[in-house]
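Posting for a labmate who doesn't have an account.
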Amino acid sequence: MHAMQYDITLPADYDMGIIRTRVATRGHLLDDFPGLGLKAYLMRERADGSPVNQYAPFYLWADPAGMNAFLWGPGFQGIVDDFGRPVVQHWTVLAYDEGPATASAPRTATRRRLPLPAGLAPADAIAAELERHTERASGDGVVATALAVDPRHWELLVLTLWDAPSADAPHSPDTDRFQVLHLSAPGRAGLKAGRAW
């Protein structure tokens, strides 16, 4: 399973209603996309206390062929046409789990990027994060959570979807908070739960 995200940072005075309209009119286009586990249409805005206005869709791909079909097909080309070609970040998924609020539509997402300490054996760092992942997945309000790693930069990614509104989501200085405008989840039921190996 692969995680993927691109951040489109917009001007401070950008009308974020344009992003809401974009998602409302186009979000459903991936509701049955082959190979896609889920796509969370994420947005954060300065009006809510974010340091930036940003559109940052997050994907979990069950099948790399689906990811390739999206990136090299008309779906991603629409992003390129409207915003330019963003850097596409991607990670190998280490673990994925549904939470107690799995039946709820996610309203908020949190994202943490954590560098793996250079002096720590990668397997040891991953083991500790897998334990925290299991605890996080059982937390109140968790719809789903994923733990992934980028071994090129030795960076962990923790993305959690919550059923709570933005004001109720967990706060931490190293956590980015987003609104979830829509969730396309054609392959969510088939995503492997727990550790990915």
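Reply:
Got it, the structure tokens are right above this. The two ends are 10 Å apart (CA to CA).
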